[in-house]
Write a structure and sequence with these properties.
The chain is α/β, with parallel strands linked by helices. It contains 21 helices and 19 strands.
């Protein structure tokens, strides 16, 4: 119990008398972080409300660091608050999550964790153990309780289940990793099979993995901003209770699940009206996200910063930046993508609304981290695709490359970072050491030579970009004008 403004009593969430329905455990979740709680658990909670799914989640904390004390104190009940723009209007959706049956530390409570593998009702495994979580660890041993890596934990968990049910193929599990790596399901299965071989678990177990289990590859999309420090007390006043596990995020969400077996009837997200797509190929949706959402971010962020803005929201209120981004997305990126025009334009419109979200303060300098590799992954495919289709250089994407060179142009390398200047004020440029050294050494070259050297650097782009007819001259001309007249003046000239 805490005191709010003017001595008003605010209860803790558990003191409100909220009760959790008794449901069988159908989901084991490796990870207790903000994203899983505001995305996956939020969706399963709605699934329970709107369909006959009737399943609870057992959360497993997969690492030793930290504790589950906060979850225990609140009986794993917590609040999700989603905020953003919807058709131009500010909207807030708040939901108390009651679908988590328990939260277990798999190291400290190993026996309780191990019993989950024997549950007859269990059907799904969800994980978010970070991009570094799905890796093969040769030091993992079956005898460890538990093995160190997530693939190690999962392999032992699945083998214990296989043994308990005598290889019954109806007791396999559907595994839904949401780690942000390519082909996350296939990579996780590769690690599990490799560990099975190293641990000599037998060909019949490997066959059971193939026949009884599904390792789905997934794509997830939602910005989760976590605990609202600085806003929490005001939010507690509105709720009428205090929640130490409160998690905030944006309204938008998308979960694309790729499987070679039909699984949507078992998790009928569509019947609950949730933004989940089941497909046999998630790649076009990933391409759409990377090229439009991430590509737009990368294309305008450095130019917007040098034009005087500090945040994404500011950039959306800046007419020249907004017009530039709009042109890049609709005229240059969308024509290179595979999905239908309707699917692409609807997603693009949602992206623009997400960028305008007043509840998310996204710093442009944060987006600038590792911009060379980001431009290669997010913008270069659209530029090359446009050239192939139209046989001409897309001016907006070429300008983004000129803006990148302008942003990175500095010979002031200090303590592992490059220091640039905007209107006399210093800013930090953070990237791989080789990238920073290159710009520190080459930035004093004249505009044409610097452009040539940057575009020829195959370690940056995976190819020599001077071979793209017309690109070098277009980028060099833009860079020359940026250096002469300033970023804002050049953008107003070409994109206003």
């Amino acid at each position: 119990m805490v005191r709010g403004k003017e001595g008003c009593i605010v209860l803790s969430i558990i003191e409100t008398g909220i009760k959790k329905p008794e449901r069988p455990v159908k989901v084991v979740q490796f990870g207790e972080g903000n994203f899983l709680r505001a995305f996956v658990d939020y969706m399963f909670d709605i699934l329970n409300e709107k369909t006959d799914f009737n399943g609870s989640i057992a959360i497993v904390k997969p690492i030793e660091y930290g504790s589950v004390e906060a979850f225990t104190k609140q009986d794993s009940i917590y609040t999700v608050c989603l905020r953003g723009l919807e058709n131009g209007e500010e909207k807030t959706r708040t939901r108390i999550i009651t679908s988590i049956s328990k939260t277990i530390a798999c190291g400290a409570d190993y026996d309780e964790y191990a019993e989950l593998a024997k549950l007859d009702t269990l059907r799904f495994v969800v994980s978010n153990t970070t991009e570094a979580g799905i890796v093969f660890d040769e030091n993992d041993k079956y005898e460890m309780c538990p093995p160190s890596s997530y693939p190690g934990k999962l392999t032992k968990f699945l083998y214990e289940r296989y043994k308990h049910f005598d290889g019954d193929t109806t007791k396999g599990l559907i595994i839904l990793p949401v780690e942000l790596i390519d082909e996350n399901g296939k990579e996780l299965k590769r690690c599990v099979k490799k560990l099975s071989e190293c641990w000599k678990l037998g060909a019949e177990f490997v066959q059971w993995l193939d026949e009884a289990c599904v390792f789905a590859s997934t794509l997830v999309d939602r910005i989760v901003t976590g605990y609202p420090h600085g806003e929490d007390k005001e939010m507690f006043e509105k709720f009428g209770y205090e929640d130490k596990l409160l998690v905030t995020g944006e309204l938008f969400a998308l979960w694309v699940i790729e499987s070679d077996k039909e699984i949507k009837d078992e998790i009928p997200f569509d019947k609950a009206g949730l933004p989940v797509i089941f497909t046999d190929d998630h790649k076009p949706y990933k391409q759409r996200k990377v090229r439009i959402l991430n590509g737009a971010h990368t294309s305008f962020s450095l130019a917007s910063y040098l034009a005087g803005n500090d945040y994404v929201g500011q950039s959306m209120d800046d007419k020249v930046i907004y017009n530039y981004m709009d042109r890049v997305i609709f005229d240059e990126i969308i024509p290179t993508l595979e999905l239908s025009k309707k699917a692409l334009t609807e997603f693009a419109d949602s992206v623009k609304e997400r960028f305008k979200n007043p509840f998310i303060k996204h710093a442009l300098l944060s987006i600038s981290l590792n911009s060379v590799s980001k431009w290669r992954a997010r913008c270069m495919p659209s530029l090359l695709g446009y050239v192939q289709i139209k046989n001409e250089i897309p001016k907006g994407l070429a300008f983004s490359l000129a803006a990148l060179i302008a942003f990175y142009s500095s010979d002031d390398l200090r303590d592992g970072v490059l220091v640039g200047k905007r209107n006399g004020e210093e800013y930090l440029i953070k990237d791989d050491a080789k990238v920073l050294r290159f710009f520190a050494d080459k930035s004093s070259e004249n505009t044409a030579e610097l452009t040539r050297l940057v575009l020829k650097e195959e370690d940056f782009w995976g190819r020599d970009l001077t071979e793209v007819s017309g690109l070098e001259k277009t980028v060099a001309d833009f860079l020359f004008e940026i250096r002469k007249d300033g970023m804002r003046a050049v953008m107003e000239k070409y994109f206003l």
